[in-house]
Structures are given as C-alpha cells and as structure tokens.
Amino acid sequence: MRMKSIEFINLHPFYKRGLPYTGKVFCHSSESPLSNETVDVNDEETHLSFLTDKNGEVHFSLDTTSWNSTLVSLKATYKLGKDNEQNSSESYTGVEDSFHWLKPFYSESNSFLEIKARNDVMPCDQEQEVQVDYILDQNKLSSEADHINFYYLAIAKRKILFNREKRVPILQHENLQGSFSLTLTIGNDFLPDIKLLLYAVFLYGEVVADMEEFQVEECFRHKMSRNTRSVALDFSHEKVPGSKVSLDLKAALGSPCSVQAVDKSVLLNKDNTLIANTILRMKILTNTRIKKPVSCMKPGFEKKKYIGKYSVFENHVGHNDSVPHSDNTRKPRPRTLFPETWISDLVSVRDDGQASLQAAVPDTITEWNANTFCVADTGFGWSPLTTLKVFQPFFVDLSLPYSLIQGETFSLKATVFNCLKDCIQVRTTLTETPELKVDACPECQFTSCLCANEAKTFEWNVTATRLGKVNVTVSSVAEDSHNLFGNRIAVTPLQGERDTVIKPLLLKPGGVLQEKTHYAFCCAADNTVSEEFSLMLPAEVLEGSDRATFSVIGDIMGPALQNLDHLLMMPFGCGEQNMVQFAPNIFILQYVKKTKQLYPEIEEKALKFLRTGYQSQLLYKHDDGSYSAFGNLTTRAIHGPLDKPVLTFTSVRIMCTMLCSGCRSTSCPVAASVGAVDDTISLTAYITAALVELHLEKNDTMLNNALHCLKNVTLDKTSLYVKALMAYVFTLRKDMEMREQLLDMLEKETAELLTSHSSSEESSSSSSMIETAAYILLAYVSKPDLAYNDASMTKLVHWLSGQRNAFGGFASTQDTVVSLQALAQYAALISQEIRDVKVTVKSKEASPLVFHVHRNNKLVLHQAPLPAVPGMYTVQATGSGCVYVQTSLYYNIPPPETEEVFVLDVETVPREWDDVRKQLDIHVSISYTGSCEISNMALVEVEMLSGFIPVSSSVTAVRLFSLVSSEDKKISFPDVVQPEISKLK
C-alpha cells in the first residue's frame, strides 16, 4: 500500500488581477513522480483538468480577470480512473488534496508587470528570452505618448551587472495590456543566480515594478574556443579489460590539466565527487608568495610514457602491441590489476587546444568515472563526469576477506557471470599453492551450465598456511559441449572463452602478540657514545611473525608527544583506561609550555583529547560525587582538571570515607588494588597524595588527620609503594624531616630492585615497581631547591625511561599516568639543549642506518625497520646533545598456559545460512572461579572470523554491559565477573 501526495511548487504568494497566474503542481508517491495522472486545479470559479508529465508535474495558467482583489483559494487534487484502478499493479491509498492561498498585489492604478522565464535554470553562455506581461492604466500616461519606457537591471553577487532600457510602442485609445520579451546573455558573472528588476515610471511619479530571481547553470570562465566556455573529456563508452583506450581532452590553448579516473564504487555514498558546485564561489586565501612558474616543457613531453602504480599510459611507436594480431589466437591474460584509482595525472594541452592519453584499461569489471579540470589565464575550467564501462560477456569474480589468520580455514567463493545470449558450460578451478591448502570435496560440483544472464557461485574450504601476501588464482573456462540445457545447446564463445583472476590475500600470524622494548638515553658531548641491543627470540615464536623497529627522538617526552592517543595497546571504555588518554595531556601541556615548545599542532591535539576525556570521565560520576564504573575510580579522577564545583564535591566525598583517625575506611568494596598493596595504609596514602595535589588549606581537618595517620605508620613494616607515596606527600607539604627519612630508606631498598626489574618481567610486577619509582622521582623533583645533578634522581630517570613501551607509555594505565607526570616535571626542570647529534645503527647482517637529530627536529620521531631479527645491533651517537633511542621487537607466540580463574564457553549457532546471507550468533558465557567474592575488572574480547563483521544491532544489544567498544573485527567490553554465569550474545 503506497501513499499518493500532491503539492503546489514554486508558487508566487501574490496574484496580479488581469494578468495570467501560472504555477506548478507535483504529484508523487513516496517521492517518486507519478506520470499520466489526472490532476484537477480549481479556484473559486474555474475547474481545470490536466495530465502529469513524465516528471509528475503539471504547469497551469489561470485567468485572474474575474478575481475581485480578495484572498483566493487554490485547490489541487487528482482522481484515479476506473481503468487505472483495475490495471494498476500497485495499491494506492490516502489521496491528499493540496491548498494554497493567494493575496492580491496592491497597485494604486491597478497597473502591473510580471516577469516570466521560459526555463527554470538559465543556460550559461547562451542568449535567454525573458517574457514580460503588463497591464497599465492609460490615464497615467501622457495623451501624446506613443511609447512607454521600461527600465531593467540585473543583480548578481550583490552587484548591479548592467542596467538597460526597453522602449515599447503604444497606440492612442489602445487597451494597454500585452507582453514583450527581453534578451539576456548569461555568463559566469551571473552565478549562482540572477535577480532581474523591471520598472516603469508614470507621468505623476507612480512606479510600477516587478522583480524575479532565476537560477543560472554552473559554468566557468575557461574558454575552450571563442564561442564556448568549457572543458571537454571524452573516451569510449565500453571496453574490455586490458584493452587500450584514448582519453581526448579539449581545453584552452596551453592549459595544464589534471585528469582523474576512479572506480564508480569509490564515489557511492561518499561526498567526495568533484562537481561544479563544490568549486564555484571557492575563495583561495594564502600568505604564500607565489611566483609564475618557468615553463620547462620540451617538445613531445605530452607523449611521455608514464608507468605508475596502477596505470600505464603509452603512445610510443614500435611497441609490440602495434603488430597486428588475431584476438582469436591470443591467449587470454589473467586479470590481476584491480585499483580504485586508475588515472591521476597532469596533461599539457597542445597549441591546437587538444590533448590525448593512451591508457591501458584495468581488470576490474566496473564503471570508471573520469573528469578533468584545467587552469588558464582565462580562468578555471572543469568537465563533468564521463563514464567508461569495462565489461566482458563471461567473467569470474572473487569474494575475499581483507586478511586471514595463519592456520584459519575459510570459505573462498567465486561467482561466474554469463552475459552472453547463449548457454555455456563452465568449469571453474582454484589453483592450490603451498600457502593455501584446499580441502578435498568429492561431492562438490565445479562444472555448471549458465544460460543468458545467469550466475553461479562456487565454493572451496581453504586453509592459510604461510604468512604475508599470497595470490589466490581462480580460472573459469567455457568448455566444448553439445549437451542440451532445457531446449538450448551450450556453445563455446569465439573469444574470451577463459577468464582467470589473481587477487592478493594478506595472511596474519596467529597466537598472542608480544612486544619487547629497550630504551637508552645517549648523551654525547663532542664525543662518541655507544649502546648495544640484542634482539633475541624465544624458542616458541611463530615462524614469520617477528619484526623490529628502531626509533630515535631528541626529547625525553617525545615518545609520549607522538602517541598521545594510544599510549597503551588496550581497548578503551573503562573510566580508568580513559584517564590514560586524559591525564597525561595535562602534564605534557605543562611541560611544553615551560620549555617553550608549545607548537599549535601539539596544543590542538592535546586540547582535543582533554575535552574528549573530560566529557567521558564525567560519565562515571555518581550523584554522591564519587566516580566508578564498577570499582573505585574517585581518587584517580581528581588527577584530572575537573571543574571546581565538581572537584570540591568529589573531595568531600573522599574525605567522608575516612575514619575519624584520618585513615581510609576499607568498608567500601574496592575491586581494583591501588599500586602493589590493597590495605588501609596504602589507600590512605594514595588518597592523601591526591588531596595534597589539590592544594587544600593547611588547617583542613580531614587532611591533617590523614597526615597524622601516615606519620604514625611503622615504616619498617611498610611496603616500598607506601613509602614512595608518603615521600611524595610530605615533599608537597614541605615536611623535609619526614621526606629525608623516607628517601634514605627508599634509596637503600631500591638500589638492587631497580637493576633487577626489567621490562621483560611480567607486567604485574613491573607495573607496581614502575609506579613506585615514579612516586620517588616525584618526591625528588617536587622539592623547591632541587639539586639537578642528584645521582639518585638521574638513576631513576634512566631506569624509568627504559621501562617504556613502543608508544611512550608504560605497563598499565595507572603507572603510565604517574610516570609521565614525574618525567614531565623532571624534563621541565632539566635543560636539554641539543645542537646536532648523529645516530648510527650498525649490525653485521645489514647496512647501517643513519639519523640526524638537531634542535629543529628534536620533537620528530625518527623510525626505521630493523632488517635482521634476531641480531645484535650497536648504536653510536656523536655530536653534542642527548637523544633517546629505542628498539621495539614484536613477535607472536602460542597462547601461554595460565592458571584458570575464569570459565569461558563459546558457542556458534547459525542464524541465517544460505547462498545469499550467512549470519551466526556467537554465545559467550563467562564465570569467575577464583578465591575472591568477585573478580577484578575482566576484559572480554570477541574477535570475528575472517570475512565476518559484527552486526551493529547486536553490538547495541550487548550494551547491558554498559561499556562496549567495537573496532575493526573485534568487540571488547569490561565487566566485574561474579561466580554466577554472565552471558552475552
């Protein structure tokens, strides 16, 4: 059942009595025009019937002579005849009428002018006739007048383009009603629309006038010839893959032109098509000093042979293909070239105003959209899209996923299309290679008959065995056969009896990705400093998955500056993980401001993340001022720049959770431990540090109670983490006695630990030690009279720098935030002058890599792949200044065996499974089996099978877990898992 609608369009709100009133009616169903419909247009006295044209429109004209200068009601409706009702294949309902009220136009003498155009859009570079109807009062003219002067002017772009006069003869005692025409020549100056004002002045000063606005066809100043203003691009409308095609271009003499041709599918549902409307009225603003280029064009330049990534232009003499040959004897070549962009090139127009390109057509069966734009002294020129259809009557098409996991079995599909008028018998084969193993399928049929305009899909189960890009080759051959198919005999095409398609497929390693990084801080003072790196692989590494990179940068905060948006390789969505994108921006902005390195691009990037992170963090705020998704987040939240009212409310919430003694109450459930310990003292120290950073008043009772609680702690029985936090707290409160006592104990206890803990240890141990070292460094750098050459502080900085991951972050969210805060404060205090440092990376297996770092590029991350893995590398830094060098080693290993504290059950159930659609339901069940009442935050990742993507509606349905993210082919969601089974679908 479809709804019919009718409406008036482009109606003038006023009528002029005595002049015909014209308008349009549009009849449509669901925005589709309805043609040959009977439409009735009625005023208060007239009833007219019309038939809609192919556009569903009716143009009507009404006599206004009898209208009595009052409001007039127009009504439009249509009626479906009996024959149409019986023969119509569609059912319509809900017929609507349309009404429109018209007001009389006022004139003291009942004299009127009305401008009417013959076309809705005025064509460019052509003369256009505009009709003017008039009715005038004879008494307003001189009795001796034999003519009347009409004046008209054209307005475009807020300027009067011209004003002219039209003399119309009149006869005495004649009824002054009639019409005349004005001839306008429309050009580029009139874009995008023109207002035409027409008026006449009577003897005693009365003015009668009319104004109308017209759209103008989009055009440019660029002249292809004296009489035309355009650029033209033409080529054949249909070609077969691999054939030659000529693109013929016409433009102004000597114009440089840009020619593009892209696959039509690229432009679908995308607003990136070059059209005149996106270019017109564009203003170019620049402060660049532009000089006219010197022409170095040599004769024959336009006849160059250009070999690009995706296209071949050639028009040289003596090419092998110039030898005549028979298509019947030529063996069909495989189709291997499937670009999205076919042509992107600059062409120079010859002195005769023409240019041409000889291009080889790519192998995609598609439509190519080509256009060009040219520039010349006369202006900008542009050609509309022209289309080339690449087609062959019999072809095979492959449906491949972007990538596969090594060892994964997937369904490879090939569809054969027959666009011939006859039936053919085809045999389709998949070439088996060492990289792709094809499962045997004795019952599968790979030979089939295809009649006219039919298609057949063939399917193989294939297992990927080798990493990297591999070629998938599928061939389909039209075999000789005289079998009857229905009442038709299969034939063999005279040409194109075979089609072979070769497409690449990326194979990725399976297992679990591992990352090993090694940092070094190299300072050269007009000498040479060396560091050695050993890239070793474990025995269980998956073959072919290893790779390594080397990076160098001239600033201690450089790695974090380059990777503000992904300091950690983990999914985001939880409030704590949000902090790692949020808080470091504050410290980094403070650092670059102090060191006078706040460039606009750095500030814009950091502020963007601050705004996003701030809004995201407020999503976790509860009504009582606390922050939590399912654990304790409140204390960590106040590390960010919350609004003052929000921050005060949150601080009160934290204080209210403390006991009268000042020590943090442990009655509230805390799912995630803070640092290395989860007890009353560690939580009190952590919260006190956060409150001290807020610079509360010294006589604040709750804060003083908390400090009193910490002072009464037995230090010999307290963990390193709590001592480090306390050292930082008492440094901020300027209690130097407690600070020195704590730092002396920490220096003795950490001397051995800082050398034994390396980035290769497990993240849990490393993370707690990193955070501890960061708080010790904060205690050092927060002292007002800091000794810059303090050996203990320098040792901490070197150790912390060596714990970074490949992105400039650390092991977890919390140690990343604290460590970057400590390093940023240190770097802002210590001068890091760098003049010029040359870094050379050497190995026995490869040529050396050389990098130059100086004051102008010290914030630029220089990076290159290392060719030999495993291997030994020596890094030498010469010159004057300090640089930070890093090697990052990546490889995959089989999933390690770990102690199970979760039970995970995954079931795949087909929902819709046929030749057209394949949908699966993935049922995931998780339960916690550990010793605690509930788990810490657990992260569940569901990665899709190759070739499948998650259905967006199902992702929305899993929002009951509240924090779901979808990226690439992976669904991630965090949750606190209890012994009861949690399920999602």
TrEMBL record:
Domain of life: Eukaryota
UniProt-recorded Gene Ontology molecular function terms: serine-type endopeptidase inhibitor activity
Gene3D superfamilies xrefs: 1.50.10.20, 2.20.130.20, 2.60.40.1930, Alpha-macroglobulin, receptor-binding domain, Immunoglobulins
Alpha-2-macroglobulin domain span: 341-430
Subcellular location per the Swiss-Prot or TrEMBL entry: Secreted
All residue ranges annotated as the Alpha-2-macroglobulin bait region domain in the record: 113-269
Chief location of this protein within or outside the cell: secreted
Keywords assigned by UniProt, alphabetized: Disulfide bond, Protease inhibitor, Secreted, Serine protease inhibitor
Record GO cellular component, one term: extracellular space
Cross-referenced Pfam families: A2M, A2M_BRD, MG4, TED_complement
UniProt-listed PANTHER family: ALPHA-2-MACROGLOBULIN-LIKE PROTEIN 1, MACROGLOBULIN / COMPLEMENT
Family: Belongs to the protease inhibitor I39 (alpha-2-macroglobulin) family.
Protein name (record): Alpha-2-macroglobulin-like protein 1
